[in-house]
Design a protein that fits this description.
Layout: H1 3-20, H2 26-32, H3 36-47, H4 53-60, H5 66-77, E1 85-87, E2 91-93, H6 96-111
Antiparallel strand pairs: 1-2
Helix pairs in contact: 3-5
């Protein structure tokens, strides 16, 4: 196997792993109009029971403070009535009903090609 083929194979495996971990979900990005880092963060919340700030720093390598990243994501998801819970020394999580809501919105957005059905983007300073 040549080095180019090996690199291509490894890149494909990385993409598959990121997809499995919820770190590469274009549907999240498009449906909720998220930045790539917000999409990765929401994807992580969907697949794991709890997400700690250390996990955000290590897995997602987000340059900003994880608290700031979660705050921005929370504010961005308010129009869809999606709420992220948190507790000190535990981390951040989505309740089961919120996970179902996100998945339902993803399915509805996939069925609808009309982008005007999504809530307007809130102006958060």
């Amino acid at each position: 196997m040549s080095s180019n083929e090996e690199v291509a194979t490894l890149n494909a495996r990385i993409k598959d792993l990121e997809t499995t971990l919820g770190l590469r979900n274009e549907k999240l990005t498009v449906t909720f109009r998220l930045t790539p880092s917000q999409s990765k963060l929401l994807g992580l919340l969907l697949v794991l029971p709890h997400v700690t700030p250390d996990m955000v720093r290590q897995r997602l390598e987000i340059a900003t403070d994880p608290k700031v990243a979660f705050h921005r994501l929370r504010q961005h998801l308010l129009p869809w009535d999606i709420f992220i819970k948190s507790r000190r020394n535990v981390g951040y999580w989505l309740e089961d009903d919120m996970k179902v809501r996100v998945k339902t919105l993803l399915v509805e957005a996939g069925a609808s090609t009309d982008q005007t059905t999504a809530p307007p983007i809130a102006n958060v300073a």
